[in-house]
Specification:
heterodimer, A: alpha+beta, six-stranded mixed sheet, five-stranded antiparallel sheet, 9 helices, 34% strand, B: mainly alpha, MetI-like fold, 12 helices, 0% strand, binds adenosine-5'-triphosphate, binds magnesium ion
Chain lengths: 351, 268
């Protein structure tokens, strides 16, 4: 049996169905992210695992034990909050020691453990400081240390980096992953930032409106999205209206131009509205024999630093995004220019 | 532009000084009057007499004791209630806030008559015993101090993220007693101290309820009696009680300052 099992977990707040039939098995040592838009039920699910909310239906098992209705202070599950939630009346060391004192660990051992986790987060000299004497990033590291000090069975993080600025966020993100791997601690990380989820996780749970849309490795989620929601929520995606010409030969028409696509299951096609999906980074400027070709007029050019995003008009109301890597000598086309685009057949699929 | 500014400054000084005069002149007059107990010279005779009166000390001690019990009982009642409401029943806050203001609306005389009517007969008979009346007095004072107690504590709770701190403590393994004693109370220190001093100031000077329930035993009625019978002593008593009140206020400031240096509000 898996280390943590959520089976058929649902949660309703009055009329609002925050989480619906949530099923997940997490292996020991895994790093799982819950990814989804605001209000999709990520926090609610995490809080049920922590014990702060009780499911209206379903069961939560940790190491085979049913913990569905066990109070949070008896779960031995560490939690890190977006707002840090450090105790303002205690120093860093006292904050970290708190959970150990509650467990009646002896003084010498507490001291040793506090020192140990402080060096883990590289804040050895900060034990005597109060939370308000630390930067946001340092406070969140202390909160992480405090949660880890009790050697929890699970580490839960609810958007721990979203109150921090971009640079610190990136730094701390790597730090969290490093510590998680060093300790081998089973971790669930809630975020609405796809980059965080993709870079940190062993597996990602993509959620929408209280339901799981897809569970998979970052690679699977990005390259083989199983629903339109996942495809467009994770990464950028072009969705172009198509006319299917010959299903057996996988040929369709986009804005009057013929395109060949990867074979698709027929069920999608029966659903009516069919579109061609392709990621902007798969498309290149220029002509290559044997690949799909599209002609269109440049509508806009957006410079994003390492990437230049072109919007190309293929027909009336049909725009496609194209991402080009920036190079120093690259002369981007100008709006109004007519260009040819190419992309491999395996890069596009029907959705 | 510059002239306007200077004129504005002048006016604000003018009003401020006027305000201070309005406030200080009667006080000064009272003080000067209290020094005239001895004919033709200024002296502290009236103060000496007040301090030599055993009843002054007896009633003072009685009211102080009642005040301290009120503070303790009030805090034990209000702190967990206000905490729980912030944590779990935020929708009730409107109601509790309204209820906490009621003592401002209901006159003390109505309150004390109500209390006597209800608790002097069967099945309570509280007013027949020494302990009973004192308990009733404390209960009435808790009601009277409710606006200060509740407001101060609730404001203190608003300054910390009650829910996140509670949940953080819970996830670290703490049960309710530990959370209250080690997380909530320490962070409410300033709020509790100001609530305590405000309550004490209220209780020490209270007249209506005390005179109906315990009469001359309490400090308020004692002061009023002296005021009716002894001219100079009453002025000196007024000054003493005024100094006391200001001392309490000063203490609040002092304690809040000490705390503010340790952790400035708004620093996260
Ligand atoms: N205590 C509550 N009472 C009522 N409704 C709630 C409560 N908590 C959450 N909800 C509702 O449940 C749904 C899911 O909320 P949740 O906080 O889990 O979303 P989330 O995915 O964490 O969103 P965000 O990214 O904005 O944090 C929302 O519609 C929210 O309004
Ligand atoms: Mg959330």
């Amino acid at each position: 049996m898996a280390f943590l099992v959520l089976s058929h977990v649902s949660k309703a707040f009055g009329q609002t169905q925050a989480v619906k039939d949530f099923n997940l098995e997490v292996e020991k040592g895994e790093f799982i992210s819950f990814l989804g838009p605001s209000g999709c039920g990520k926090t609610t699910t995490l809080r049920m695992i922590a014990g702060f909310e009780q499911p209206t239906e379903g069961q939560i098992l940790l190491e085979g034990e049913d913990i569905t209705f066990r109070p949070p202070h008896q779960r031995n599950v560490g939690m890190v909050f977006q707002s840090y939630a450090l105790f303002p009346n205690m120093t860093v060391a006292q904050n970290i020691a708190f959970g150990l004192e509650v467990r009646k660990m002896d003084r010498a051992k507490i001291k040793e453990r506090v020192h140990e986790v402080l060096s883990l987060i590289q804040l050895e000299d900060y034990g005597g400081r109060y939370p308000y004497q630390l930067s946001g990033g340092q406070q969140q590291r202390v909160a992480l240390a405090r949660a880890l000090a009790i050697r929890p069975r699970l580490l839960l993080l609810d958007e721990p980096l979203s109150a921090l600025d971009a640079k610190i966020r990136l730094e701390l993100r790597q730090e969290i992953r490093r510590i998680q791997q060093a300790l081998g601690i089973t971790t669930i990380y809630v975020t609405h930032d796809q980059e965080e989820a993709l870079s940190l996780s062993d597996r990602i749970v993509v959620m929408n409106q209280g339901q799981i849309e897809q569970i998979g490795t970052p690679f699977e989620i990005y390259n083989y999205p199983q629903s339109e929601f996942v495809a467009s929520f994770v990464g950028q995606l072009n969705l172009l209206p198509v006319e299917v010409l010959d299903l057996s030969k996988n040929i369709c028409r986009v804005a009057g131009q013929e395109i060949r696509f990867t074979p698709t299951t027929n069920s999608i096609l029966k659903s009516g509205k069919v579109r061609l999906a392709i990621r902007p980074e798969e498309i290149r400027l220029g002509m290559v024999e044997g690949e799909n070709l599209l002609r269109g007029e440049i509508a806009s050019v957006i410079f994003l630093g390492s990437i230049i995003r072109l919007r190309v008009k293929l027909g009336e109301g049909i725009l496609i995004s194209v991402d080009q890597f920036n190079e120093r000598h690259f002369q981007p086309p100008r709006p109004g220019e007519v260009v040819t685009l190419h992309f491999p057949i395996h890069a596009c699929w029907l959705l | 532009m510059k002239r306007n500014l200077r004129l504005g400054l002048l006016w604000s000084w003018f009003w401020m000084i006027l305000g201070w005069l309005y406030f200080l002149l009667p006080l000064l007059a009272t003080f000067l009057f209290s020094l005239r107990a001895k004919k033709d010279t200024l002296s502290f005779l009236a103060y000496e007499r007040v301090f030599k009166d055993p009843n002054f000390w007896k009633t003072f001690a009685f009211s102080l004791e009642i005040g301290l019990i009120t503070i303790l009982a009030g805090l034990v009642l209000i702190v967990p209630t206000a905490y729980w409401i912030r944590l779990r029943l935020p929708r009730l806050r409107m109601i509790t806030e309204f209820v906490s203001m009621l003592p401002f609306v209901v006159p003390a005389i109505v309150l004390v008559f109500g209390l006597i009517r209800v608790f002097s007969g069967a099945p309570f008979y509280l007013t027949n015993t020494y302990m009973g009346t004192n308990a009733l007095l404390v209960a009435a004072y808790i009601v009277l101090a409710l606006p200060y107690l509740y407001r101060a504590i609730d404001t203190g709770l608003a300054a910390i993220d009650v829910r996140a701190l509670t949940e953080a403590a819970q996830s670290l393994g703490a049960g309710w007693p530990v959370i209250l004693l080690r997380i909530i109370l320490p962070n409410l220190r300033v709020a509790m101290i100001s609530a305590a001093f405000l309550t004490l100031a209220t209780v020490m000077g209270e007249f209506t309820i005390a005179s109906f329930l315990v009469g001359i035993k309490a400090f308020g009625p004692y002061m009023s009696l002296v005021g009716q019978n002894k001219t100079y002593e009453s002025s000196s008593l007024a000054i003493i009680s005024f100094v006391l009140t200001w001392a309490f206020m000063g203490f609040i400031q002092l304690f809040s300052r000490g705390r503010a240096e340790a952790a400035p509000p708004g620093a996260h």
